[in-house]
Design goal:
- By secondary structure, this protein is an alpha+beta fold.
- The chain contains two helices and 14 strands.
- A hairpin with a 4-residue loop joins strand 4 and strand 5.
- The two termini are 39 Å apart.
Length: 261
């Protein structure tokens, strides 16, 4: 009888000291990622509706093509839809719904969607924006060339970026034919203009003719002082419209990750 009482007291003590505090921490963690408590970010709106298709190619060391991937970004009023390899068997979609503070991972073939709070993506976007991609550091240098080329219907000028310290080089074809500005639009919850310092550098570099001005339609990236490219990106489509079908998930079976918590 005494032993049983001691065991019960020990269990009670362990529960109070360890189990309950742990459950409270779990409840607080869940509370932090709910849709209703995502109050630290305002509901963003995209000032420009647009559809952008990017094709990315990666290469092996011998220069042969390793992989090709396409990403379509559809910008709606209060959200974006990112479609990877559209029409392919490996197609994947992500829908960002700012009004609902939710992100959806969409299985187009199975007509299902996994819903989750957007706040973690917004935190990620904030960190990514803070780190930024800086093409105007002291180690890198831009050079404007006289070479021009028609790429997907856009008249482009070639610029060369070199970074001797990092042993990298990039050829960039930039067009001023695209009179649309997506810097005020959002991506993963953060404004595009904050993801790269290059997006806002034209104001700083407006007297430097060597700094690219316009939309980068193609870039070819080289690493380790190699003349063989490691990556190439092309903007194959740029439209000032967006199709509402990418934001309609009424026909999908939606599974909310919070339902199981």
């Amino acid at each position: 009888m005494i032993k049983r009482k001691i065991k019960n007291e020990v269990r009670k003590d362990m529960k109070e000291q360890h189990a309950e505090p742990q459950r409270e921490k779990e409840r607080e963690a869940i509370e932090d990622i709910t849709y209703e408590n995502d109050k630290c970010y305002p509901i963003p709106e995209n000032p420009v509706k647009a559809t952008l298709v990017m094709e990315t190619k990666s290469f092996k060391n011998n220069g042969k093509l390793k992989e090709t991937m396409t990403v379509k970004m559809v910008f709606g009023n209060t959200g974006e839809c990112m479609i990877m390899n559209e029409g392919d068997k490996n197609e994947a979609r992500m829908l960002f719904d700012y009004e609902g503070a939710a992100t959806y991972m969409i299985n187009e073939k199975g007509k299902t969607a996994t819903k989750m709070p957007m706040i973690n993506f917004q935190k990620m976007a904030k960190k990514k924006a803070e780190s930024g991609v800086d093409f105007e550091d002291d180690n890198g240098q831009w050079k404007r060339t006289d070479e021009q080329q028609d790429i997907y219907g856009f008249n482009c000028r070639k610029y060369i970026y070199t970074n001797k310290k990092e042993k990298t080089k990039m050829y960039a074809w930039v067009s001023q034919d695209i009179n649309i500005d997506l810097n005020g639009n959002h991506l993963f919850g953060g404004q595009i203009k904050y993801f790269s310092k290059m997006a806002t550098s034209n104001k700083i570099k407006n007297v430097d003719e060597n700094f690219p001005k316009g939309m980068m339609v193609r870039y070819v990236y080289f690493e380790k002082n190699s003349d063989t490219p490691s990556m190439q990106m092309n903007i194959t489509t740029f439209q000032k419209t967006s199709d509402d079908k990418y934001f309609d998930i009424s026909s999908y079976k939606v599974n909310d990750v919070l339902d199981g918590l």
